[in-house]
Amino acid sequence: MSEEQLTLERKAIAREYRALLKNSKRNATDADKILIRKAFDLAVEAHQNMRRKSGEAYIFHPIAVARIVSEEIGLGTTSIVCALLHDVVEDTEINLDDIESLFGPRVRLIIDGLTKIKGAHFLENASMQAENFRKMLLTLSDDVRVILIKLADRLHNMRTLGSMRNDKQQKIASETLYLYAPLSHRLGLYNIKSELEDLCLKYKEPEVYSEIETALAKSKAVRTRFINQFTVPVQRALKIADFEFEIKSRTKSIYSIYNKMLTKNIPLEEIYDVFAIRIILNSKQEDEKSDCWKAYSIVTDYYKPNPDRLRDWISTPKSNGYESLHTTVMSPSGKWVEVQIRTKRMDEIAEMGYAAHWKYKESASEHALDEWITRIRETLQNPDPSALEFIDDFKLNLFSKEIFVFTPKGELKNLPQSATALDFAFEIHTQVGAQCIGAKVNHKLVPLSSQLNSGDQVEILTSSKQKPKEDWLRFVVTAKAKSNIKALLKEERRKIAIDGQEILGRKLRNLKINSNDANIKKIHSFFKLTSPHELYYKVGTEQIDLSKLSNLKKEKGQLKYRSARKKKASSIKDIVKSIDTKNTNLVIGDSMESLDYKIASCCNPIPGDNIFGFVTVSDGIKIHRQNCPNAITLMSNYAYRIIKAKWTNAEVISFLAAIKIIGIDQVGLVNDVTKVISSEYNVNMRSISFDTDDGIFEGTIKVYVNDTTHLTELMRKLSAIDGVTKVSRIKGEQLESTVNVAN
Ligand code: MN
Questions:
Q1: Could you tell me whether strands 696-705 and 684-693 are parallel, antiparallel, or unpaired per DSSP bridges?
Q2: Which of 41, 45, 90, 651 is catalytic?
Q3: Is 90 a catalytic residue?
Q4: Mean pLDDT, to the nearest integer, of 61-66?
Q5: CATH tag for 655-735 (out of 3.30.70.260, 3.40.50.720, 3.30.930.10, 1.10.1370.40)
Q6: Is 423 a catalytic residue?
Q7: What is the pTM of this model?
Q8: Which of 9, 91, 142, 492 is catalytic?
Q9: Which is it for the CA torsion 374, 376, 377, 383, positive or negative?
Q10: How many CB atoms lie within 10 A of CB 414?
């Protein structure tokens, strides 16, 4: 860099820093400003010689994270200081003691938490990554700012992901979609959540992303005009009623449009046609509820509401503190418009999450945060489930909607949707759950597995003779119930195993065989079991025929049985090495070698598709499409098994692809379709099936093609056939064929 460029860069850094100061809390004291300056100076010095992948000076990153923390999450000085310093301990000479002596123990604690959870995606294996996530949440219960700063860090990394290598982009985007987006949702940071999701989509499905983006931009003028017309009468009436208010129109996020297209199979044009506005009232806290309902009544004076779509999150806020009144009304042109009504306070909470709660200290939602943290702590403290299972359970709860049910005394409990009576029992107390034999829902007797609905009153029936059952895991949905049942079952198994050990001991004494470790090991491999524990348990439950032991050869009490041992592949490198190098259609790994591979059946990639390799334990390397339904799980849980893969055009091989055709049924159509296919010389049909329903036909064709060019060409020709309205490629076999990643 030239001297001139460096001067420009220093100026840009100073500019960013001033913007940070200006936008940090208006009421920051001089002492706060001195502290922020001190942190800034330290960070500048520590990162002095570091540059980001993009080439810019590293210090831009911590400043940007501090600005997000302050401007977009609304946190104060301590958090700004920690954000500025968040990478210092990890990446430079400065250690935690230095931090403590300069900024005190609280800042040390937060930086420590941030340092521990850093770099989770570079970890060697899945369980370590999950374990890290668990630690992160444990730290969260000490100081929630750790996780908020971590989210800001991730948000900035996602915003600047463009300069990373493609495979890194895929890994980071997957992990963000898997962990951080749901987490920000759970914390009520809706803006951050949807930005994270949009950014993930941008890197995971660039074509779809830009298609939606373009469509939204094109229709913007029309949408604005419509919303303006719609709001005119409401605005007038609100003014007459003497309200202070603001009306915002909302555009759906690109990701949520994509998701709707995917799950509901609705074409793009119909989705962005859905309109939404938000009325934000400036109310005194004691008038909030009645003001919102007054505004509701004004809106519905002009437009007819859909009674099924009224949601009152004001009387019963969501457990993450969200409050708002939602309704959907019909506009004169016949379009549905979603209307959200809330006060300024509620809006700030909805946009900024818990940070805003702290601003409104007197509100009851303070309590909700504590409750949430307590719940996480409970889940975390239970030592039994493996960290990986924990993440899955935890994620389940992050994603699901909530129901509200009552105890017999009228106490309100929050549960995830599709929670059962047994979940409720565990929610009350572990002991109540463990001894639960049934429940009365609204005074009617129901089985443990019956699903609860919002508003149910639930009474749990228990018996001291009841024992937890394996089967219960099939229907409980809360993380709390799951982990408790697993722990109880484990305890039960342990007791049975102790009995089994005694029984086996007696039998061995009878046969004059020593019960030492070497013999026990031989016995469990003789019965093809994996551990002494399993052996004892199976003996305890009488699943093993101990009389077979008398056939074993022995000498002076020692068994002579030799078990056949299989050699296990010990590392990913060994597996990769043991695979023959013969295929030339694809190059794999950092060195881009030609290794043997298999095509994953869940997404059937063909040359031209963006792909990655996944090293399986027993089936070599499998090639998946980057937008495979399983890719997110694979990449975020088994990042270390992902290897790069790229098509080459050394050899022509055929690949299977599936196409869906929709159109209007008419004579000769199937014939036309098959003609087109057979006239394409490099395409071979494997199967074809057509369904007709009320004049609409839907066909699925499986063909062998060489690459995406041929496939696209074929699809173009098919869409040109008279009567065909839509031709699309079928993505994998959808989610039902979840890859068994252990194999
Ligand atoms: Mn960082």
A1: antiparallel
A2: 90
A3: yes
A4: 96
A5: 3.30.70.260
A6: no
A7: 0.55
A8: 91
A9: positive
A10: 18
